[in-house]
Amino acid sequence: MARLDAVSKKTAQKIEKLADSVLRTVKGGQNPFVEIPIRSLANVKFNQKKRLIELGSQRQKRYFFNVSMAKKFMQTFLVSDACKELVDSGKTTSIRDLYYITKHTIGDTKQNTFEEQDESDPVIEDLEVALDALREELHLFASRKGSMVGPITIRDSGDSIDLRRMGSGGWAVPSIVEENVIEFVKHEAKYILLIEKDAVWTRFNEDKFWRREKCIILQGGGQPPRGVRRLVQRLHSELKLPVYVLVDNDPWGFYIYSVMKQGSINLAYESMRMAVPDARFIGLSSFDKATYKLPSNVAIKMDEGDVSRAKQMLAYPWFQAKQWQEEIQEMVKSGQKYELEALSRRGISFITEEYLPKKLKDRDWLE
Q1: 100 tagged catalytic
Q2: Catalytic residue among 63, 100, 292, 316
Q3: Whole-angstrom Cα distance, residue 3 to residue 60?
Q4: Rg (CA), the chain
């Protein structure tokens, strides 16, 4: 068995506790069960005080001696056993690998433990909420997606990495970024800039915006994956760095910001470890087209889906502030949306040399 760090030891203990509770039930002559918080829209709420989307208190018991629940019960402990082996050995694997590791035929039957990965993935999420542990703490990872550069030195699995010297591609943000894997050694950063698109992030990196501004720039290729969101949350909470989000002026861009700010409905059970309630939206704003004199020929006409989505957002509790209502209403009223690249019409480096510096100087952001 590998020597476990504090995070892994705690995770292993949580899995053992879950197994022990079932064994005690069996020894007591009762129907063994596992209790899991219900992950449904009906059990999700917005906590106004914490400014986070949270999972409610509703729970369900998954019994072994129940025809409709027995298979899920078995699958839950197959996955937990596989994760315990990973944690004990100090190894990680992908959620795809885990599906194959836990898939086999049951006894002399023709029944498989899992038929498809879409059966095992929800069980992993069930285990996360049952144990109150990130899947990354269970030593499961997803594909790498995201890049980062800036005035900071980190330690990644024991290797010291200077993110000031990462060239044009940046440091590839891994899926697992917990403190037992990624440590923050030293930095001179003043803030974090999360950029929606790789192409725009490349412009900021090439123009060495991060060096000039002393900031950390990250991108997640659209909706940031869990690794990027968790890393941003850690940088913010541990290093006390403000977070600014730069996205397209469309409903999808606003949604990316909202997920980074207060979490998502799908991952409501992880909002406290993924979201940054103090994150600031720094553009592209619906009013920037006039402020920065963007020609109408760079606008994109909103389709019915865009308009419908924007109107839905007007009702979201986290978009009730007057400024956000005006922001979204202006988008709907104009019937137009703009990509960040539209700013290049004013010059290839307009976004890094004029647009964002002015936004920061004028404190022109939304919260």
Answers
A1: yes
A2: 100
A3: 35
A4: 23
What is the C-alpha to C-alpha distance for residues 367 and 358, in angstroms, rounded to an integer? 17
Nearest to 220 by CA among 173, 271, 287, 277: 173
d(CA 21, CA 130): 12
C-alpha–C-alpha distance, residues 28 and 106, integer Å = 27
Provide the H-helix boundaries in the chain: 6-27, 70-89, 95-102, 117-131, 198-206, 209-213, 226-239, 251-262, 271-274, 288-291, 304-313, 322-334, 350, 356-361
Residue corresponding to tokens 């993935």: 121
Q: Is 129 exposed, middle or buried (0-12, 13-18, 19+ CB in 10 A)?
A: middle
Considering the chain, what is the average pLDDT of its residues? 90
- Quick: pLDDT tens for 258-298: 999 988 877 777 788 889 999 999 989 999 999 998 888 99
pTM: 0.84
For the stretch 46-100, pLDDT in tens is: 888 888 888 788 888 888 888 788 888 888 889 999 999 999 999 999 989 999 9
- CB half-sphere exposure, 97, CA atoms < 13 A: 12
Q: Which ranges in 246-349 belong to alpha helices (H)?
A: 251-262, 271-274, 288-291, 304-313, 322-334
Q: Residue 193: beta bridge partners?
A: 217, 244
* Beta-carbon contacts of residue 312 (< 8 Å; ≥ 6 apart): none
Residue 92 near residue 141 (C-beta atoms within 8 A): yes
